[in-house]
Each structure stands twice: as C-alpha cells, then as structure tokens.
UniProtKB/TrEMBL annotation:
<feature type="domain" description="CAF17 C-terminal">
    <location>
        <begin position="204"/>
        <end position="273"/>
    </location>
</feature>
<protein>
    <submittedName>
        <fullName>tRNA-modifying protein YgfZ</fullName>
    </submittedName>
</protein>
<dbReference type="Pfam" id="PF25455">
    <property type="entry name" value="Beta-barrel_CAF17_C"/>
</dbReference>
<dbReference type="InterPro" id="IPR017703">
    <property type="entry name" value="YgfZ/GCV_T_CS"/>
</dbReference>
<dbReference type="Pfam" id="PF01571">
    <property type="entry name" value="GCV_T"/>
</dbReference>
<dbReference type="InterPro" id="IPR057460">
    <property type="entry name" value="CAF17_C"/>
</dbReference>
<dbReference type="InterPro" id="IPR045179">
    <property type="entry name" value="YgfZ/GcvT"/>
</dbReference>
<dbReference type="InterPro" id="IPR006222">
    <property type="entry name" value="GCVT_N"/>
</dbReference>
<dbReference type="GO" id="GO:0005739">
    <property type="term" value="C:mitochondrion"/>
</dbReference>
<keyword id="KW-0809">Transit peptide</keyword>
<keyword id="KW-0496">Mitochondrion</keyword>
<feature type="domain" description="GCVT N-terminal">
    <location>
        <begin position="14"/>
        <end position="112"/>
    </location>
</feature>
<dbReference type="InterPro" id="IPR027266">
    <property type="entry name" value="TrmE/GcvT-like"/>
</dbReference>
<dbReference type="GO" id="GO:0016226">
    <property type="term" value="P:iron-sulfur cluster assembly"/>
</dbReference>
Length: 279
C-alpha cells in the first residue's frame, strides 16, 4: 500500500467553516451530495457546479460541534469563498477561512486527538482524512508523494489538477462512482443536467487512470491513437501513473496510446461500472 503507516500532510488543502442555524439548509440547495449524511463520524464528498452542470469546486465536508468544515483546495479557496458568499443572501450563516487554524492529514488508520478523523468517502482504500488543530502536526512524512501514488493507483481525481473548471461535467469525473452525488436529494445548482446525463446514459468522456511508459507527459498533452486521432488529454501524474481524460468511443482499456514521448495505457479501476451499467 503506497501510504503504509505514514501520516501525510495535505499541504495543498484548506479549511472553510460554516456556522449558524441555516448552515445545512444553505449547502443542501447548492451541492451535489446530501448534507444529512454528515455527522461527526462521517464525511461526505461533494461538488459545487455551474447552472450548466459544469465543475467548479469539489470538497469534503465534516461536522464539528455547531460548524460544518469544508476541506477544499488551498489555491482556489478565495474563489470558493466568494461563490458561497454570493449565494448566502439572507441565510443565517457565518462563513470563515480557518486554514491557519488547522492541518489536514491523510493516513491509513484513524488518528486520535484530531478535531475530526473520518474515512475518505471516495474509496475505502484511501484510508482516513483528519483535521488537526494547528500548530500541532504529527506528520511522519514531509511530502504528499505517497498520497498521490495511492490516489492515482485507485483512479481518483485531485480537484482542478484533474477536473477542468467550468468545462468538465462531474459524471465525467466519476463523482457518482466515488460517492460524490446523491440522485435522490432534490434540487441543487446543476442538478437537472447531472440527472439527465445519468438517466439518459449518454456519458461520452471520462477521467481514467493510466500507466505511463516513458517520460511523464505535461498536463494537457494530447493522447493520440494509432490513426493519429486525438482521443484525450493527460492530467495530473507522478512517476509511471497519471490521470487521462478520454473520449470513451475511441479508447479501450489495456490498449497503449501515444502521449508526447511516452506511451499511456488506460487501466480499468475497481469502481468502474460493468458494461450493463456504464454511463
């Protein structure tokens, strides 16, 4: 297992808190997952979309006391904060950037002493995500490399490194298979497009893990088939693993394709739906 017994600091993550009596009702009308699933022991994975169903932000949400904690991308926190404030209107909530008050850690086992420590809701093999009060930091590793290796091996996207903002539909980013969408919760921003894609089964593109043979291509490098046709683009990667964004009609699992000076081979992840359920 790539992370083994390490405690990994997720230095590219940040914390927003939402407090106030309307915090759950406010998020319920905005995000792709059901906030009623959240508890002190259970986190959810969810996204904020455009009205056209395109990806804007994804995050993890846990509850601590009377506050919801959003574990989000550090570099894009200002944009997420701005959008939430735009939607707040008269809702009785307080939204705060609390990044300097907490560290976010990844580990295979639950960490005691944290503000909250929950199973990563995307995949059982991703272990736990823990929010720890700063400046306390019990990391045993100073790099995110083991975490990246694990999530790439499982075919999990890492926010906007893999999911293109205002371009990618979240079902293309596999958020349904990774427990990030609740199709029974009711309306939210972008819900109509997302539901239509699911029930019409017309998904044409997907993010998928790939094995790299050769130098790791830069993100955005085209993936080309034997006929010289562009069938996708590479996204984030590390060593001999990466994520690729593919046109499904023109790719096959375990079939090598050209990407820059390397060969990339798409791998079927364990969460990928069988043919009769494929969207």
């Amino acid at each position: 297992m790539p992370m083994q017994n390490d405690i990994i600091p997720l230095s590219n993550r940040a914390i927003l808190t939402l407090s106030g009596p309307d915090r759950r009702k406010f998020l319920q009308t905005l995000i792709t997952n059901d906030v009623e699933k959240i508890s002190g022991a259970q986190a959810i994975y969810a996204a904020l979309l455009t009205a056209q169903g395109k990806y804007l932000h994804d995050f993890f949400i846990t509850e601590v006391g009377e506050s919801l904690f959003l574990d989000c991308e550090r570099a894009r926190l200002p944009d997420l904060f701005r959008r939430l404030m735009m939607y707040r209107l008269r809702a009785d909530i307080d939204i705060k950037d609390c990044t300097d008050k907490y560290n976010i850690l990844a580990s295979m086992g639950r960490i005691s002493g944290g503000v909250t420590s929950c199973v990563d809701p995307r995949h059982a093999h991703m272990g736990f995500r823990t929010i720890m009060a700063a400046p306390e930091n019990i990391s045993t590793c100073q790099t995110m490399v083991p975490y990246d290796r694990l999530r790439l091996s499982l075919g999990l996207p890492d926010g906007s490194r893999d999911i293109e903002v205002d371009r990618t539909l979240i079902l293309e980013a596999n958020m349904a298979e990774l427990n990030g969408v609740d199709f029974d919760k009711g309306c939210y921003v972008g819900q109509e497009v997302t539901a239509r894609m699911k029930y019409r089964a017309n998904l044409k593109k997907r993010l998928l893990p790939v094995r790299i043979d050769g130098p790791l291509p830069d993100p955005g490098t085209d993936i080309i088939n034997d006929a010289g046709r562009k069938i996708g683009r590479i996204r984030s990667g590390l060593d001999n693993m990466a994520m690729g964004y593919f046109r499904l009609a023109h790719m096959e699992f375990d079939q090598p394709y050209t990407c820059g000076e390397a060969t990339v081979t798409p791998i079927r992840p364990d969460w990928y739906p069988p043919p009769e359920q494929k969207r």
